Each structure stands twice: as C-alpha cells, then as structure tokens.
C-alpha cells in the first residue's frame, strides 16, 4: 500500500507542473472554462450596428457585409486593449483588404485623441448602452473575425501578441 501511495505522489508531482505550464500557455482558454465571458459566440451572427464614430459622422457595420472583417471590442481604460494598439495598427496597414472596426466603450473624446495620436485609419464606433447590450459585452478586448455573411468565424478574448498572430493567420486562411 505504501508503494502505491508513493507512486501516486510521484505521478501527481509530475502532473502539477505540467498543468501549470498548460494554464500559463493557455490562460484565455482556461479562463473561458470557468467564467462567462459574454459576447457573441463563434458561429453566431454579429450585430451589424450603426452608430457615431468618435470623430463625428456615422459608421454602419452593414457596409462590411459581403466581405470578411475584424471587429474589436475595447474599453478606453483597458490595459490589454491599449497594449494591442500597435499590433492592430500595423496589421490594419499590412492588410487593408480585411477591414477593422473598433467598438469602443468609454469617452468619445478620449478615443478620438487616441485615434489621432496613434494615427489609426480604421473607424472607432462609440458604444452606447444599447450597443453594449447587443454585443453582450462583459470583457475587453474581444476580437471577432467575421465572414461575408456577418457570422463570427473566429473569436479571441484578451490580447497576447502570440495569440493575436495565430488569430490573424486563421483569418488570412479563411
């Protein structure tokens, strides 16, 4: 009996670090197992909303129907969102044929300032309460790859450079 317990302890001692490495390398996936992250699920239709762009004027997401595009859900005070800005700016410049639209929660003036400081060329929709409810927003950032019909074909919660690169590789192949 004692030998069995010792063997079991050795097996557990080996599995615990492996589980830790898995969690560290797949943090967003593990988080999704235990929490309701809200948002639009893969395979569902994204709300093709229209609203006010942070620089004035209107943006209608229906204009993207018929082509694939990326929708980013962000919040002005979200540090992960902010850390994604250089990457999404670069990606948007490299792949202008796959439009990007940001749906931003927070001060319209702050987003306008960020847009000008970072020289974003994509629209930023100012998300009012109704729009937040349509997107079932709970966490930020969330990136959606949307197909020509408006269906979410890929979803990424949070932001890590490595995960974003994988996400975009999938988008390019679609």
From TrEMBL:
Domain Thioredoxin: 40-174
UniProt-recorded Gene Ontology molecular function terms: oxidoreductase activity
Coiled coil: none
Cited Pfam families: Redoxin
PANTHER family associated with the record: THIOL:DISULFIDE INTERCHANGE PROTEIN DSBE, THIOREDOXIN-LIKE PROTEIN HI_1115
Protein name per Swiss-Prot or TrEMBL: Redoxin domain-containing protein
Organism placement in taxonomy: Bacteria, Bacillati, Bacillota, Bacilli, Bacillales
């Amino acid at each position: 009996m004692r030998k069995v317990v010792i063997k079991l302890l050795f097996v557990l001692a080996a599995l615990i670090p492996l589980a830790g490495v898995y969690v560290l390398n797949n943090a967003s996936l593990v988080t999704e197992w235990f929490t309701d992250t809200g948002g639009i699920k893969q395979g569902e239709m994204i709300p093709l909303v229209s609203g006010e762009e942070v620089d004035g004027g209107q943006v209608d997401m229906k204009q993207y129907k018929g082509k694939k595009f990326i929708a980013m859900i962000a919040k002005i005070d979200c540090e992960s969102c902010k850390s994604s800005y250089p990457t999404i700016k670069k990606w948007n410049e490299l792949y202008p044929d796959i439009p990007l639209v940001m749906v931003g929660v927070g001060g319209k003036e702050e987003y306008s300032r960020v847009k000008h400081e970072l020289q974003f060329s994509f629209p930023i929709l100012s998300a009012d309460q109704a729009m937040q409810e349509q997107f079932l927003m709970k966490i930020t950032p969330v990136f959606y790859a949307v197909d020509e019909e408006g269906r979410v074909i890929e979803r990424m919660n949070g932001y890590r450079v490595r995960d974003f690169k994988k996400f975009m590789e999938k988008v390019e192949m679609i």
